[in-house]
Amino acid sequence: MGIWAAVPAKDEEKTILHVIQSCLAAGSNRVVVVVNGSRDRTEDLVRELRDTRVMALVFKEPLGVDVARSISAFEALRGGADSLLFCDGDLSGPISKCLAELAGAMAWGYDLALTDCYPRGLPGTGLAAQVLRARRLLNEGIGRADLGVASMSHGPSCVSRRFLETVPLKALAIPPLAQALAVKKGLVVKIGSSFDHRLLGAREKDVSHAESIAECIMGDSAEALETFHDKSPTRTFEGAVRIGAASARRWDILESYLTQPSIRRPQPL
């Protein structure tokens, strides 16, 4: 079934069509848009496409950060996808080339192709620098210092069917954990594209949201490292327990979706 793409979308009416078209231009023959908690026209715009290559999964409640990845992965695995692109629904930049490079990396035997979002160097101070320290510490701690600060949490990525069959689907809701488990299980994990994060065109968030996401990524990275080394996860990084947006993840909805066939209602458009 070729290349699928997973696109989470919450109030992304300004960018969702651009992201879908970018995924299709990159070679995807099925795009799974997980519309969740949206109050704008995101769902309507996706439906109005009337494109049989696009599948809408609609949740009235917000799923929380990254939960949509697990749901998309379930559908891709069930639908026979050979590979799955992950791309956020809020990107407005020229991303199709990056997506195509990631998808193309699967032909080289990659199981996880990451994007290097900092090809021109890293910020030295501030919240971003702190998050990048957590990401670097994770990669170094799992024996993959060559990955630098590349993370499934930031920038598009692509996984193989072998990845989907090997890494627990629930782990994809904590992207650094999925990345660490892929390494632990001996999958091929490499950089598949270099694309400056400033060109992604991600929607600007307010300060409180940015801080919440930063706390989440730091905690996710710490949990991934602890799990990799068979330790109980504490989500502690630089002397503090990091929760942030992780507290809003709807594990209950995910569990129901994965285990109760009656609630799974993919809607081809």
Protein model, in words:
This protein has 269 residues and is an alpha/beta fold. The protein has a domain at 3-124 and 143-202: Spore Coat Polysaccharide Biosynthesis Protein SpsA, Chain A (Alpha-Beta Complex). It is 38% helix and 17% strand. It is built from nine helices and ten strands. The protein has helices at 16-25, 42-49, 67-78, 96-105, 126-141, 161-166, 175-184, 207-228, 251-259, and strands spanning 3-9, 30-36, 54-59, 83-86, 112-116, 157-160, 189-194, 236-237, 240-241, 267-268. The strands form two sheets. The protein has an eight-stranded mixed sheet with strand order 7-5-6-4-1-2-3-10, with helices on both faces. A two-stranded antiparallel ribbon has the order 8-9. The protein starts with a strand and ends with a strand.
Please tag this protein with its features.
9 helices, alpha/beta, two-stranded antiparallel ribbon, single chain, 17% strand, Spore Coat Polysaccharide Biosynthesis Protein SpsA, Chain A, 269 residues, eight-stranded mixed sheet
